[in-house]
Amino acid sequence: MFNWAKQQLANVAGTQEPEYGPTAIQVVGTGEGDPAYTELTKDDLKWFTIESTCVETQTFYLHMDSGHIGFLQVIYSNVAGLRITCQFNCKVFYPNNEKPALWSSDPLENYGFDEEQFSFYADGVSVELSEDGSSYTIKSATNDNSLVNVKFTKAAPGFVGGKNGTSNFGTDPKNPWGSMHHAFWPRCNIEGAIITKEGEIDVKGRGLFIHALQGMKPHHAAARWNFANFQSPTYSAVFMEFTTPASYGNTVVHVGGVASDGKLHFAGTSGEVKHLESKQDSENDWPEPTAVSYHWAGKTDDGKDASADLGGSLGDRYDRLDVMAEVPGFVKAIVATAAGTKPYIYQFAPKMTLEVKVGDDIKKEEGNLFTEATFIS
């Protein structure tokens, strides 16, 4: 009971958590009898909108045939059950990073959901799931420099890691005080446009959709993140990894999968990310990665060992985000009192070659990688 009381103080006041140890996180996919992954159904796509502190997002990553890369994102944030705010973000990197990225981030008013919690609405924004659960239509008129009308259609099965895609935090597994959840559509066909003041960007290409819930203060759940989104003519590969703070034993949690049109080759919670080379960022002392490797591992539905590997130089950094400078005031309020919290996101978009091995069959293909390394505390 004392642990619970300390946790509630940390939730409200933003204080540093005690060191509960690695047993205080129940990592996704590690429960007795848990499958490596579970295929998504339409019911798995509902918004959670929990009543306690949380950040919930739906993010649509864009790999456009034109060479543009970007994402569209809705953020729903609840601070201690006291205040709910919503935000719509649009970011587009130009081919070869030839000019500064388009970035717009706008607070939303009069937000709401449909009766079944599948679709999100606010003044000037709608994110609608189709009746059959196979596509999203994203529209936004919140910013004159990024008028959005985009459709994402699922091109391969969606999945969550383990049984339900959720890691739970707390010393009593039956009564967790926090959670982390990710659900993926790893390969989508995208169409539509983003209209900017300089003209229209045709988004036709491939995409990735992620629905995420951080059901606690973000800096309490994770100290570091690694994210990879690879898209090529044949393959899509997604990798999401976070490392908990010392309060949960610096535990590493990862989930990922590899897909092609109409097929999820394998998915699960096995794999590894390595920063092969890095350099010290003179502005904030974080070790900015300059070369990385990603390793996926799992089994196909018919029991064959399967793996995928991707790695090499990250090339020139596309962007470095000082999260505290970029995010809305509500997130600043969440982390304002947390000592040692200085979140930065490093973004890269190099060309790389994915090697996929299924049984004795090995295939390689070049594609575009969008990757982020995030340091929080």
Automatic annotation (TrEMBL):
Give the main localization category: cytoplasm
Please report the record's description of how this protein sits within the membrane: Peripheral membrane protein
What's a single GO BP term from this record? response to oxidative stress
State where the protein is found: Cytoplasm; Endoplasmic reticulum membrane; Golgi apparatus, cis-Golgi network membrane; Nucleus
Gene3D superfamilies the record matches: AttH-like domain
InterPro entries in the record: AttH-like_dom_sf, Ceramide-binding_SVF1, Svf1-like_C, Svf1-like_N
Domain of life, source organism: Eukaryota
Q: Where does the record place the Svf1-like C-terminal domain?
A: 216-377
Residues folding into a coiled coil are: none
Instruction: Tell me the ranges covered by the Svf1-like N-terminal domain, including all copies.
Output: 55-214
Q: Which GO terms describe its cellular component?
A: endoplasmic reticulum membrane; Golgi apparatus; nucleus
Q: Does the keyword Nucleus apply?
A: yes
Against Pfam families, the record matches this protein to: Svf1, Svf1_C
Report keywords, A-Z.
Answer: Cytoplasm, Endoplasmic reticulum, Golgi apparatus, Lipid transport, Membrane, Nucleus, Transport
Its biological purpose: Ceramide-binding protein that may transfer ceramides from the endoplasmic reticulum membrane to the cis-Golgi network membrane, and is thereby required for the biosynthesis of complex sphingolipids.
What family does the entry list? Belongs to the SVF1 family.
Protein name, UniProt field: Ceramide-binding protein SVF1
Write down the species.
Lojkania enalia
The taxonomic lineage of its organism, from the top, reads:
Eukaryota, Fungi, Dikarya, Ascomycota, Pezizomycotina
